[in-house]
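Hey,

Quick one before I head out. I ran the complex with xanthosine-5'-monophosphate overnight. Inputs first:
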Amino acid sequence: MIILIDFGSQTAHLIGRRIRELGTEVLIVTPEVAMQKIRSFSRQRRDQDDGRVDGIIFSGGPASVYNAPRYKKRRDIIASDYEKGAPTIDPEVFKLGIPILGICYGQQLICQLLGGEVKAGFKKEYGPAILELKNQKIKESKLLEGIPDGITVWMSHGDEVIKVPNDFETIATTKTIPHAVVENKNKKIYGIQFHPEVVHTEFGTEILENFLKICGLNPKRSTIDEKFVENIIKDIKDSVGREKAICALSGGVDSSVAALLVHKAIGKNLIPCYIDSGLMRDGETDTLRGVFAKHYNMDIKIIDAKKEFLKALKEVADPEQKRKAIGKAFIEVFERLAKESGAKFLVQGTIYPDVIESAGTKHARVIKSHHNVGALPKKMNLALIEPLRNFYKDEVRKIGKILGLPEQILNRQPFPGPGLAVRIIGEITEKKLEILRKADKIIQQEFEEADLEKKLWQVFAVFTGIKTTGVRGDERAYGETIAIRAIEAQDAMSANFAKLPYELLEKISTRIVNEVREVNRVVYDITNKPPATMEWE
Ligand code: XMP
């Protein structure tokens, strides 16, 4: 087993997933309890295969090692470091003889605790970098065995290691950082500044696979199968029993898969509904009605709540306030429904990136409150069932496929729960929604015609709230700016903007300014994630 210490990383769970995909058990723990867990496993199971700690991974994290006081005694950590928000760990961990891999903050922590030096980076680095291997050293490095020179790796850091501990060697660098991969091969302690767990890092899985081999394990790649899905259904059955549950379908893949799982578990005791918040894209509600009627053998309740949502959003401009107002409005509708039907449970299609961005784990920071997680009110009269809480979108699609979900839903582009509200900067008004819907419809049509829609994670329009000057028919015009966002990704943790043909961008831009009178400028968003998120709010 691998113990994964979560220092608050956005991607700690993704590291766990990669390790599990390699057929190895992982236990994710907070730094506060890590040593106690490692010791208790080592004591109890020294001679057993099951549950033995074979390796330890330190995740990344948002804090700055640079600001953290040096570790002295266990008592000091609790009193100082944790409260200052820079989690650390008892250096005894390095004496256990168990291989350790530190990623990002994890690497910096290893170097600082063992006598190296970390500095706030002059050049903060987010997104792609090229890894340069140190040729003489690499031949002997087991961590980078079989990894070619010049691969693209994904960075997301402000601080960096500027001096490695005495008994460490640097085996790879990038143009901006001198110590991208460091190791002490005798003690089997390794540190890497980039993120091998995100799909945008080339050979990331192979690097993790190499670490598992260093731990004496025999990694094998595994998959989601029917048995796996049956177990999820059984779990739901056990927790809901004979009670009723309501589920809000959005037409997206997550809520559809969640609903199907619960339907298989409790049958008619599931009450599926679709809430029209008025924040949907053009024609969305009608399309969804059609899809549901055709493919689901379920009686879906359609609730028109447009007025309620617009009222809740009146004069709200702050993105987090918007998300919370929408979350609250959804819950009010659910609670009404629950009262009418006597349901005790609420099914949500929350997936892992929603949880982590809402700071669902101890040391993680809030990036945005996903309406179905961080935006839920503290007191709620419904218990939650979130069968997909531990999965990523591509895994959800695999589960959906096993459940027989039609292609049309399975491969739909994701659409955020708070809908167009997070694609309009500033206050939401009916007028802005109307402008955005028109521009977005043109974008959807053109991508479909160019047959690009299925290759992209998402493509959509953003109402930027910026007015600029234009000229139309010799007259001065002062109008809105629409941004186009088109991204490629495999899970929601990292993404790159799509390199689209200029002709397509020009066609879209021309159509938007000609067909949507209020708009006189169109821009293309060329930012990756990180540092940007996919949605603008
Ligand atoms: P970001 O903008 O965080 O988005 O990079 C990652 C993916 O998640 C979707 N998204 C949401 N989905 N509720 C959802 O169900 C939400 O509150 C939410 N916010 C973002 C987004 O569309 C993208 O695919």
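The longest helix spans residues 319-341.

Talk tomorrow,
K.
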